Amino acid sequence: MSCAPRSNPPAGRQLLADRVSSPRAFVRPNGDGITRLVLTRPGKSAFTQDFYVLAFDPASSAPPTQQLLVAGLATPLGSGCGQRGGGCFETDARGRLLLSMPPLSGELVADLLRADPVTGELFDLGPTYYHELSPDGQRLLVHGPPSEDLATLYDEDERVIPLGSIQTSTFIGAFLYYVDDQQRLSRLAVGGTPEVIATGVDSFVSVTTAGAPLFQLYRPATAPPNDMQPSQITPDTVSFLDTVTLQETPSPVSDRGFDVSPDGAWLLVPDYVADDITFIDRATGAQQVIPSVTTYQWRPGHDEAWLSDPQAPTDTIAIRKPGAALQQITGRLYPVPCATAQPDLDQQMAAFTPDGAYWFSNTMPYGRDSLWQVGSADDPAGPLFPVTPRGSQPTVYWPLADGRLLAPAWTSNPDRSDVYVVDPRTGDRVVMGEEGSVIAVGGTRFLMIQRVNEYEGDLTSIALATGQSTMLAPEFTLGAFVQPPATDGGDPVAPGAQVVFQYQARYPSPYDGIWVAAVP
Amino acid sequence: MIGQGVLLALVVLAQVGDGATSPDAAVTGQDAGAGDAAVPDGGAPDGAATAPAASVAPPALPAAPSLGHVAGRVLSKGSRAPIVGATLAIGEGPAGDSDTAGRFDVQAPCGRRHLLVQAPGFEPLATDVDPCGAPAAALTLRLVPDGAAASFQTVVRARSVHPGVTLTDEELTQTAGTLGDPFRALESLPGVATIAWPAPIYAVRGSNPGNTGFFLDGIRVPALFHLALGPSVIHPYFFEDLAFYPGSAPARFGRYVAGIVAADTRGAATDRVHASVDVRLFDAGALVSAPLPDDGGVTVAARYSYTGELVSLLDQNIQLAYWDYQLRVDRRVGPFQLTLLAFGSHDRLVPERDDTADELVLDFHRVSLRASVPVLSGRLQGSIALGSDHTQAPIQDVYPIEADALSVAPRLSFARAFTAADVSAGFDGEIIRYAPLIQGDPRPQDSSDLGQRRVATLLAGYASTTLRLHRRVEVTPELRLDSYRVGGAAAHDWGPRLAARVALADDTSIRVAGGRFTQLPSLPLQVPGGDGFGLRTPGLQSAWQASLAIETRHFAAVDASVTGYVQQYVLTDLRDPAPTKPDPLADDFLIARDALSYGLELMLRRPQTERLYGWLSYTLSNNLRSYGGGAYGPSDWDQRHILNLVAGYRWGRTTLGGRAHYNSGRPYVLYGDAGGATALYPRRLPAFYQLDLRVDHRVYYDAFQLDVYAEVQNVTRTRQVYGLSWTGDPDHIGQKSFSLVLPSIGLRAEF
Fold it and tell me: Is A226 exposed, middle or buried (0-12, 13-18, 19+ CB in 10 A)?
């Protein structure tokens, strides 16, 4: 074959040369200057995997080192996880992996293992019904099997705190909130002791608000006898608890289901029989009934509700602003997942951009006539511009720093999206990537695997300003992910950022394996 | 010769003995014309010298016998074709030969005589005649073709320096494993890989199936076979011959980077009306060829398949139909020899009657007018062909595409032979207007131009000369300039070619050939209206080809050749050979790859003039592709070993045929997901072998002949594995396969 032309190898540095190692995640850096990757290889059986840690110094050409972390785990990682930028498993703030191993018996409990990829330490967290990791990754709450109904908090300060049987729990801010079997709502800070903030509570729901977290508390009106039919059960009483002031106020509504506006000021009660929505002022109980609508979207950052009736023959949206008359516009709210929504709203479907500046409409959301349009939310009756071509389906979009939207959309195969960048102010649209999926989007460029066939494609860096593309690995990039930025809000695709990818040619090649390259 | 019968006076006449005749010998009528040569009993024949008078009476000589005439025609039984040069013998001496019309008129002594007629390729015919008998109608003697060897005409034709294989006559229509289709004989030739039998999809010398061009009288044929397991789109008996160039084709052929299959149609009959009707299991066809008044002739052929009706009987949901037609008219007008050729084909397949979105329609029509005139001691030939293509096909079951194309293809060539050289030069072009219609495809306009309206202008000029440098050395340097323009994209390429033959001995020679070839990007399969695209994105396909062959006829009745070849390509491959949702309109459907193919081809061929005929071909090849990121691997069609043994044996009027085939498996890549880790598992499909058997039997009647044949392909019922399936465990891979035995029976009557 020496006489035949040969194309260039992939860009960067080949860390491993094989066809069996699959990179799964970067290990959160610990400041020692070493980059660590978690990778898996097939275990002894077809359904188990061995976990390794691959460590290398990006500033050195020294060969990487490998360390077996744990062998023979039947951890379900999901098809292709780690190969399209997504994570495969949770890691805590110290980069320790939380590996869940389901039992073969089909029970609902799994064995939870915590593995430290730096030290190699393994810690068996035992049979687990489910677990919760605090948003900062510092605290872990493990719920034991239902038969034991015991929860244990593995706290940031290394304390292991048995919490007994708890009904509802959530991490918000500095606290773990939970309801114990005594119907006490308590909260627990790192290093602190449980603080009871409400009693007689069945359960609670945290309401995301712009200000202090607000809880809806549910209390049983009466204890239902055991033989009572469900239809005879008296509804719970509902109240609101301000988690800062700990002031509790009764809910104006307790006999119907309702939603709360993002700022907590309004309760919305849709009535699907009467075909209307009632807006109730949480503080005063004042009500406003808006007919002929059943669904709503709150415009982020604004006290506006956009209301519609999906069953109506005409596509009309009613915009409710406090103190203003309803504004009627033509359109149909079209929620699309946003990749940069707040962490607790990750991938949340919304018909507005996160800043509330633009809204999305699609009067035919499905099929060949589907057309995703964007318009100014400040000028609801203004022009709408196509974001993606008619007949295509969006997957997720990224708002860019310059105000444009980056939107992949597919026609016949979700793995093969064309990537459009559209300016919602003017409707100007360009195609920046073709037939693939986006790995990461940064401030000046984005990374995608283009021209995906089956599972592989061209790993390409594309400049957002010019559309200029640089191919890092052609044709056979099986998966790729970027190293998370050192600081929150950092640019994940900044020049020089490390991108790890798996290259596996159709037939065995000396270039098969795991590579690392710097974003150009 | 007629008139030589006077010599018979010197021979001893023998009375006819038992006078046994061939069972099939036929003598109709009795020549009544002997009377004009009547000789009185005991007298000298007219004009015979009388003996001079003498004083002494000489001894008495036997009286010269009286002579009569025997006249008639010698025809081939079953076809009414005159037999030229048939030798007639009356008694023990030669009486004469038949003329160009098969007629004879010989003198012979009166009395009952034994007439024996012999001609090469025919069984002898014996009968009794009396040259002086009662007047009767002229004799019609019908000779039965000899079953030991087919009756072939000797055609003197310049032997091409270019390496290739030419099939004629029964090799075209009776080769086992072809179901009687000449084009299917390709799959038994060296250098040809059949991708997945029984689909007639051929990859030549490591290229893709779409890299081999098919020409009929120089006109590009956009589709070779009907859908499903349909036959070729040209009636088998419309062919005169078929030449296959696995590489290094002559410069008059272009725009393909691998093989060339050039078939010539049979000239229209000028002697009398010929007709044939054939009925097969799947279809019926007819061919009529007749002379025109004054000059020239016309041939019409057509075929209609009732497969659709048969399939519909089995499954009401499926609709399948095809037909084709061919017409050739030859006529001389002044100094011009004109040939009008028209052919076309139609296919329609609806897998689900209620879902016409899946409907597949393939249509094409071609009509060509060719004129040839002697000029400057050479021959100037010009032609213009008009074409219409229509394809309707579903894409991803979502967006039906209709591809229509209209084309005009002018050709002009001049050829002249000199003592030491033959020269030729020519021009050929093809201008095609494509008008695809895609319903509802929302993709960017800059995606593949396969789905966009466009005009392709393909022009080429070429020059060729064959130099006879020495009694044993012939060299043919050639140059072809191709110009391609599709939409706003253009490309040009100079294609030098060279072929040479050096005779090492009278029966052994070395042949070398090579050159550069270019082609527009191509789909894996040729689809009417589905070409002429992609110049902007993948760019031109190209090939540098070289081959070296040793040929010998040293062994009795066996032509042997061994050819080594290397072909370096840039090809448009399917980027993914096993897409779950193929999308020909996507920009990345095709990708330009560097490719390398090299190998060895062996051919041992015993000509069809022998009772036992056929060939053995073996191909050893390595077909590689350069993939992205510096990776190399086998071509998706790579079959390392291909072996074919094709044989026919004539036994009386029965011909027994067989074909044994073996090929090693081609690569197949499996995409699997083991424990959440997606990976590629390159494998090879298992080898495939098959045995095909065929029997032909011919029955002669006076004015027509009836051929009956039966063929069974894959009598061993070998499973064809066409894919692999993922079971979740790379050590246990499933197979996708089918087991198919293809029978075919047919009748063909010809007169």
Answer: exposed
Max Cα-Cα span within chain A: 87
From CA B285, how far away is CA B298, in angstroms rounded?
17
**Left, alpha or beta for A401 (phi > 0: left; psi -120 to 50: alpha)?**
alpha
Note the pLDDT tens digit of each residue in A344-381.
454 477 899 999 999 999 988 887 789 999 999 999 99
How many inter-chain contacts (A to B, CB under 8 Å) are there? 180
Contact: B583, A473; criterion CB under 8 Å: no
CB B146 within 8 Å of CB B164: no
Chain B neighbors of A505, CB-CB under 8 A? 627-629, 631, 633, 680
Does the structure show a pLDDT above 50 at B177?
A: yes
- Which residues from chain B sit within 8 angstroms of residue A40, using beta carbons? 675-677
C-alpha torsion angle, residues B287, B293, B297, B299 (rounded to 10): -20
CA distance B373 to A279: 94
Q: Chain B partners of A101 at a C-beta cutoff of 8 Å? A: none
* Residue given tokens 């064809």 in the structure block: B720
Strands A358-361 and A417-422: unpaired
**The pLDDT value given to residue B64:** 60
- Mention every residue, 6+ apart, whose C-beta is less than 8 A from residue A148: none
Report which listed range, A179-183, A381-385, B728-732, is most confident: A381-385
Nearest to A70 by CA among A108, A35, A101: A101
Average pLDDT of the residues in A169-176: 90
Cα B594–chain centre separation = 32
Question: Is residue A153 helix, strand or coil?
Answer: strand
Condensed to tens digits (0 to 9), the pLDDT of residues B273-291 reads 889 999 988 788 999 999 9
Q: What is the pLDDT of residues A34-66, one digit of tens each?
A: 999 999 888 887 778 899 999 999 888 899 999
Tokens representing B640 are 């390392």
Q: Which amino acid is at B365?
A: H
Q: Which residue, chain included where needed, has tokens 């006449």?
A: B13
Q: Output the six-digit token pair for B330.
A: 């030859």
Closest residue in B to A12 (Cα–Cα) = B629
pLDDT at A357 (0 to 100): 95
As a whole number, mean pLDDT of residues B542-553 equals: 95
Residue B568: HSE in the Cβ half-sphere, 13 Å Cα cutoff? 11
Buried b (16+ CB within 10 A) or exposed e, A16-48: beebbbbbbbbbbeeeeebbbbbbbbbbeebbb
Q: What is the pLDDT of residue B48?
A: 37
State the nearest Cα–Cα gap between A131 and chain B, in angstroms.
Answer: 22
In angstroms, the separation between the Cα of residue A259 and the nearest Cα of chain B is 38
Asked whether the beta carbons of residue B588 and residue A5 sit closer than 8 angstroms, the reply is: no
Dump pLDDT digits (tens) for A446-460.
999 999 887 889 999
Q: DSSP label at B253? A: S
Contact flag B596-A43 (C-beta cutoff 8 Å): no
pLDDT at B369 over 50: yes
Domain coordinates in residue numbering, chain A: 331-427
Q: Which of B578, B588, B682 sits opposite A451 (nearest CB)?
A: B588
Residue with tokens 């949340």: A348
Question: Is the predicted ipTM greater than 0.90, yes or no?
Answer: no
Across the interface, of A9, A40, A392, the residue whose CB is closest to B630 is A9
pLDDT in tens, A474-493: 999 988 989 888 777 789 89
**CA distance linking residue A124 with residue A118, whole number of Å:** 17
- Average pLDDT over chain A, rounded to an integer: 87
Say if residues B697 and B707 touch (Cβ distance below 8 Å): yes
Chain B: residue nearest A476 by CA? B628
* Residue B64 structure tokens: 């010269």
Reading the block at residue B165, the tokens are 């294989």
Q: What number of other Cβ atoms are within 10 A of residue B471's Cβ?
A: 7
Q: What angle do CA B78, B82, B85 make, to 5 degrees?
A: 125
- Which chain A residues are closer than 8 Å to B633 by Cβ? 505-509
